[in-house]
Specification:
With about 290 residues, this protein is α+β, with helices and mostly antiparallel strands. It is built from eight helices and 14 strands. β6 and β7 form a beta hairpin.
């Protein structure tokens, strides 16, 4: 069988979502790499990589744009990957948005088996197409350490009466991913808790911080009684767990000054508390998302 035929079988197996057939086309030591694989993959790891994509994009398929064979049995295949984000990607909820990702694979075939697949594509295109932010920044420059943050707003914009703050150190990226997944689940559950106002999670270097705004300190106690937070505490105190240390606290504000909003009609800054959301010019002030 010619290398071009093997490569066609390879893409046919991808389009059938047949992980076993994909693995079976590779030689025993055959490898797969692409910009997101984290290095060469072999055997079942190749199938797991494909299955992960199919889980995020259940209708995923490849359309071949061009294919050519070099004298050394290397096949260059230019393709377009198409699909719709109907499954979770990187722990985030599906967006329902379509993708069109152009790329190319260089497939080396020997004795009827694939010895290597090297895939090339812009790894920022896919997340941007489904509405994710993609930016490049250093880990640290001088005294500054950089990171990322997420916020969830509760149903009420009330003034906070308490803040619960957790700081957890976690150096391993895989462990950070586990903690982030727990944090997202906890934040989602807090949306249904009494007195919840807002949650912000931040990761800066090896430090993972959450700040949650509540109506009162008493509302914080709900976290200790139910849901994913209890499971996260069990994991934290287990031997050789995901974290190297942590502290938690509950803070009561000493002073929270007024909320200000600029009137879109007259351009003046208005005191939201004193005017009950209406500017002195009579225009309705834009609703702010929350106090925190």
């Amino acid at each position: 069988m010619q290398p071009l035929d093997i490569v066609q079988q390879y893409f046919d197996a991808w389009n059938r979502h047949d992980a076993d057939s994909i693995i079976g086309l590779f030689a025993e030591a055959g490898t797969y790499t692409d910009p997101t694989s984290g290095g060469p993959l072999q055997g079942p790891a190749i199938g797991a990589c494909a299955s992960g994509l199919w889980s995020s994009f259940p209708d995923l398929r490849f359309e071949i744009v061009s294919v050519n064979q070099a004298p050394d049995e290397t096949v260059a295949a230019q393709w377009m990957m198409l699909g719709t984000n109907h499954g979770s990607l990187m722990g985030l909820p599906p967006t329902g948005k379509p993708i069109e990702l152009p790329g190319a694979d260089f497939v080396t075939v020997k004795d009827g088996k694939i010895t290597s697949v090297a895939g090339y594509f812009d790894s920022g295109v896919l997340p941007r197409q489904i509405g994710m932010q993609v930016f490049v920044q250093p880990h640290a420059v001088g005294p500054f350490t950089f990171g990322r943050a997420t916020t969830i707003h509760g149903p009420r914009p009330d003034r906070p009466g308490a803040f619960s703050i957790t700081l957890l150190t976690c150096a391993d990226p895989a462990d950070q991913a586990k903690v982030s997944e727990h944090s997202r689940q906890i934040a989602t559950e807090m949306l249904g808790m009494d007195g919840f106002l807002n949650w912000t999670g931040m990761t800066v270097g090896d430090r993972m911080v959450t700040i949650t705004a509540w109506e009162s300190p008493e509302h914080v106690d709900q976290l200790m009684r139910e849901g994913t937070h209890r499971e996260a505490m069990r994991v934290f105190f287990a031997d050789n767990s995901v974290s190297t240390g942590a502290w938690t606290s509950v803070w009561k504000p000493e002073r929270i000054n007024t909320l200000w909003s600029r009137c879109e009609s007259c351009g003046k800054m208005a005191n939201v508390d004193r005017t009950n959301g209406v500017c002195e010019c009579g225009a309705q002030l834009s609703a702010l998302s929350s106090w925190w």
